[in-house]
Write a structure and sequence with these properties.
Blueprint (H helix, E strand, L loop, with lengths): L1 H53 L4 H39 L1
Length: 98
């Protein structure tokens, strides 16, 4: 009888531990589902914004647009640097003439 009472007590203790674990996991699942819903909404909003501003929500197309803009910016910086050098050279020549 003592063994049975002890076995029942151990089983009740284990069940209580399992219930706490279950409750914790259920709460985590509910939070995770809420997070998934929030992130899905944010993704849809970002896609709509990208489509409105860039004309596409395709990641590869956006990446290509960014790469093209980066290359264009680098070219403009190079052109500006050359223009400044030309102005600097012209100013030196003008100063040497006078």
């Amino acid at each position: 009888m003592t063994n049975r009472t002890r076995l029942e007590s151990d089983s009740l203790r284990r069940l209580e531990e399992l219930r706490r674990t279950f409750d914790k996991l259920r709460a985590e699942r509910i939070r995770a589902e809420g997070e998934v819903e929030r992130l899905a909404r944010e993704l849809e909003e970002a896609k709509a914004l990208a489509k409105a501003e860039l004309g596409t929500d395709d990641e590869a197309e956006i990446r290509a647009l960014i790469e093209a803009a980066t290359a264009q910016n680098a070219k403009l910086v190079e052109d500006f640097e050359m223009a400044l050098r030309d102005v600097e050279t012209s100013l030196r020549q003008f100063g040497d003439e006078h």
